[in-house]
Amino acid sequence: MKRIITRAAAVAALTAAAAGMLAAPAHAEGDGKVGTLGWDSQGDSEAADNDKGGRNVWALVRDDSHPDGSPPVRADFYARGEQLHLQDNHADGHKVVAHLTVAGEGTATFVGGGWRNLSFAEGKAVSLRVCLGNTGVCSNKYGGGRT
């Protein structure tokens, strides 16, 4: 009897957890609060200098619960030269993780701060999302970039 109650309790807990996860997406598009209380997501795209038709895109997430905010975890895609720059300014032992999606190419994941030199055909749509390691704290996904 005890085993049935334990299994039933486990099934009920998993069902409740799954319902909570399916109720709303953890990260909507655009700026605003994300995932964990106190974390703020920002990002945007802009025309790239000296790259006709190219658009840069950036995303960041920061702990907004501190009085002066916290240094962000940030990723920038630069259309000119097709470079990705990851910044990990949040001293917590977790590495910055960026998810870069390029139309027709798929999504690539990059771990750790620094510069990456990439190469894509011109004119492809680009979107970007940045995370604080594998903590589940991520920015929203920002599009509008173009190679």
UniProtKB/TrEMBL annotation:
It comes from the Bacteria. Keywords: Signal. Residues 1-28 form the signal peptide. Residues 34-54 are annotated as: Disordered. This is Secreted protein.
